[in-house]
Amino acid sequence: MLVRKVPGFVPASPWGLRLPQKFVFLLFLSGLVTLCFGALFLLPNSSRLKRLFLAPRTQQPGLEAVAQVASHPRARGQESPPNPAPAAPAPGEDDPGSQASSRRRKGWLRRTHPTGPREEATAARGGGATALRPQEGSVPSSFDFKAFRSRLRHPVLGTRADRSKEPHSLVHTQREKIKEMMRFAWQSYKRYAMGKNELRPLTRDGYEGNMFGELTSGEALPLGAEHPCSSPQLWRAGENTRQPGDRGLSGATVIDSLDTLYLMELKEEFQEAKAWVEESFHLNVSGEASLFEVNIRYIGGLLSAFYLTGEEVFRIKAIKLGEKLLPAFDTPTGIPKGVVNFKSGSNRSWGWAMAGSSSILAEFGSLHLEFLHLTQLSGNQVFAEKVRNIRKVLREIDKPFGLYPNFLSPVSGNWMQHHVSVGGLGDSFYEYLIKSWLMSAKTDMEAKEMYYEALEAIETHLVNVSPGGLTYIAEWRGGILDHKMGHLACFSGGMIALGAEDAKEEKRAHYRELAAQITKTCHESYARSDTKLGPEAFWFNSGREAVATQTSESYYILRPEVVESYMYLWRQTHSPIYREWGWEVVMALEKYCRTEAGFSGIQDVYSKVPNHDNKQQTFFLAETLKYLYLLFSEDDMLSLEDWVFNTEAHPLPVNHSDSSGWGGG
Description:
Blueprint: H1 19-42, H2 47-53, H3 61-71, H4 73-79, H5 99-112, H6 117-125, H7 145-151, H8 170-193, E1 198-200, E2 205-207, E3 212-215, H9 252-263, H10 267-280, E4 288-290, H11 291-309, H12 312-325, E5 339-341, E6 347-348, E7 359-360, H13 361-364, H14 368-378, H15 382-396, E8 407-408, E9 415-417, E10 419-420, H16 427-439, H17 445-461, E11 463-465, E12 471-473, E13 475-477, E14 480-482, E15 484-486, H18 492-500, H19 505-527, E16 537-541, E17 544-547, H20 561-573, H21 576-593, E18 594-595, E19 598-599, H22 618-631, E20 643-645, E21 651-653
Antiparallel strand pairs: 1-2, 3-4, 4-5, 5-6, 7-8, 8-9, 10-13, 11-12, 13-14, 15-16, 16-17, 18-19, 20-21
Helix pairs in contact: 8-9, 8-22, 9-10, 9-11, 9-22, 11-12, 12-14, 14-15, 16-17, 18-19, 18-20, 19-20, 20-21, 20-22
């Protein structure tokens, strides 16, 4: 030891130190230890070291609150996938013996406890459910996810105890085929267009579009809307006029696919989609976007994903995106305009809608379901107030013959044109009336009354029967009928079937029959084409019935409305004809719409040589394949007692609790 070399030193103990020297040495050592511990609390970035030595009760109040949130049962449920149902493991979970399952479970843990550069970067960006980007912040909520799930009357994915008995059954084979189509559509999108809004399968690249904030000039025409010109593809107008620096919402296919991937138990694919939402779905966007499309696709998809999984990232992003849509409501009447500018917070109507003076019935009338859920999950009443005001305006305004025209001035609150359609421009308004009644657990009497009053007016003035015996819903232009029916109007068979149970007793059987007859007519529009796929619009005149009369109406863009009605009629009647018709659609999609790199619409359903339009629509994954899958599933999978589907087929839960005051709007 060094002390042994000091001159005059005389050892006084086995340690070589006398008592006074021991005292000095211990005093020096205690001072050194005190200095080191003090540095832990005074030096920057010492919080990790503090946690090694301090018990939770000694934390400062702010840290204590964070710790309590992190340890709350609901917060823990956000970090790992909740059990969706007693017999239905959530995507990302599987049998313990499965290697793939093990990898997926590790993926969940990786996002909960970052262990590497990629994971730490994800946590720092706030991509996970427990840490949001600073600019987006967190959204407090008193919503009790576990209590919500306990109130559901059926397991989300259905009771599947007998699934082992049907591995070789026909319906199992058919369901698995539809699942394979979904996997192929998703994998093609992921390979060639991940993060873009839609896949272009022929050119094997992505497409941004201009309905989601990509553009500040040019004009998007909502799908199915009529335009003064005759081009069948005018909804693509302006797609090449993007302004430098403008960036809109991306990943529409990802958001639209989340619940379908979950429903089909495509677990790895669901994890891929969820990871993209966490890490790459940014809301600090510019440009203009469609209020309607952003609501039904993005907000609807995020809400549905939250209710299915309990993952906070979906709830928070849905609410934040809903807040970005609120400037659309800044009008004298509170009726929102169709376009909102994410950068400036301004709004405007579509230029083609009565020279930019009108809002569209199907657009401002299809916000109610999602906005009530935004209030439910955020506690912010502004969302519910906006849609209740729309309801009030529509309730009080005079309606010609009880009908709702498609164009309304957001400034004066007056109808701008007496064009009535249950197809494009009007369709989902009626759908949201009956579904508001059902979603409120049948307490929203105002929605119920408005729906049945509108349905009576539609039946009186628009429903016709052709000479060949086909029932259809015509379009009304100030008293003059256009004897045609759009593909979009084919959802009405399912809607009428859904609402038949709650009609007046003497009308129930009649409405069930009306629903079946309309659905049969829409099937005929498929059966009378060479591809067995239906045209965009079909007519009943000049001796021709249920066929398109011009090439501009002969295209098929992977639309879901016909199979949607098949699904509802199957659940109501269990008539095998609806599964037969649905399978015909599956085979036609495979034969004429499947390409080497995804699914594409076709330009002419009357030609057996398909001319593809190079577009895999987001609603093909969100709606068409989902409704087909449900058609071949048991009734308690997404039971209609527990769920309503928004107009993009995103399931939203029925309010089995009366705590939110949904009744009456």
